């Protein structure tokens, strides 16, 4: 069984981003980048399935410029077998990303397609669902547990009321939640070896896709600063403040 894992390069989750002076976007010049955390859970799950003998080959794919090879090499260092970069200078919306991934899936013919449930930069959480719809494949989102047997994937997913268990036939699209696993620590020797491994590069234009940009980003602004808190000496003063200043209680 082949597994394909789609990953995205995002600003490191420990970094607090700043908005550009012109409000056009966030400023990522010189900022530390890395694998989207949810996608790292997807990579880890594919590797664990391979260690169990269920998956025989893992292919990682990302979309972006040549600088995006760093997240592919991280995936290779974790244990992915092959890596593919769909090279483009454009920033693609979720639907366009799904169309690109559909083309790669049709080329690779995996039995299992894994993605993170969302990316921490835009928090859209749409690509996996759109990909499944384009491929006309079953999907299971927000997976916190995956079991594969007899060409079926049993997925435990978190919903508002608790958890839900689904069974979907393979091939299928599954999106990973953070609770799915704890990604392994990548050792320096593995990273060094990953630097020597080949990465297949495919020009986006060569896929002959019609990618229309139906969403336009107008501006980006930082959230308003929260007002400073106040100290009160006792409960009576607290209640008085809530009544007179906040209007929380009558």
UniProtKB/TrEMBL annotation:
InterPro entries in alphabetical order: ET-Flavoprotein_bsu_CS, ETF_a/b_N, ETF_b, ETF_beta_N, Rossmann-like_a/b/a_fold
Key word Metal-binding present: no
Positions in coiled-coil regions: none
Keyword Glycoprotein on entry: no
Protein name stated in the entry: Electron transfer flavoprotein subunit beta
Pfam families with a match to the protein in the record: ETF
Record CDD domains: ETF_beta
Job of this protein: The electron transfer flavoprotein serves as a specific electron acceptor for other dehydrogenases. It transfers the electrons to the main respiratory chain via ETF-ubiquinone oxidoreductase (ETF dehydrogenase).
Gene3D superfamilies named in the record: HUPs
Assembly and binders: Heterodimer of an alpha and a beta subunit.
Obligatory cofactor(s): AMP
GO molecular function: electron transfer activity
Residue ranges annotated for the Electron transfer flavoprotein alpha/beta-subunit N-terminal domain, each copy included: 23-211
Alphabetic keyword roster: Electron transport, Transport
Family of the protein in this entry: Belongs to the ETF beta-subunit/FixA family.
GO biological process: amino acid catabolic process; fatty acid beta-oxidation using acyl-CoA dehydrogenase
